[in-house]
Amino acid sequence: MMGNYMFSNGMWFGHWLWMLVIAVLVVIPAWRICKRIGYPGWMGILILIPLANLILLYFIAFSNWPIDNRADG
């Protein structure tokens, strides 16, 4: 009775809409963190790729940040 209902167009549209919302909610903070610590903001997009997100987090956590190396005067 409900077997084909799960795969109707409405369900798939809702799925992609939620995926977009979650992606935006995750990428924006990652983008801002990367920019704030001195790396290019586009690195925040890596947070969406399954293994790259872990590598990005460890890279941010354990690398020397470019913002720390600049001369403040």
UniProtKB/TrEMBL annotation:
Transmembrane segments: 12-31, 43-67
Keywords: Membrane, Transmembrane, Transmembrane helix
Name of the molecule in the record: DUF805 domain-containing protein
Species, as recorded: Neopusillimonas maritima
